[in-house]
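Thread: "does anyone have the structure for this chain?"

Original post by V.I.:
We have the sequence but no experimental structure in hand. Need at least a predicted one for the grant figures.
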Amino acid sequence: MSSLTIDADIKVTRPEGHSAYSPGTSEELTIIAMDLLVKDIGYEGAQKFIGQVLERHKEKAALIQADQASTE
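Reply from O.Q.:
Generated one for you, tokens below.
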């Protein structure tokens, strides 16, 4: 589990109205961000963008997984 806590107040203005979010964890922040991204640039655009971000972290994630496997 994550050891991060987040204290944020996010206010979003869209043509449909206003929304407010107060995420407390990185998981909650990610859900909010992905929801907003899909609403802003569409499902396919969001999927491509998220794929690019994850690709940048692929090598680091592989190293973490290898390290975790060696300690089990």
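V.I.: this helps a lot. The chain has one domain: 10-71.
O.Q.: and The first strand starts at residue 10 and ends at 14.
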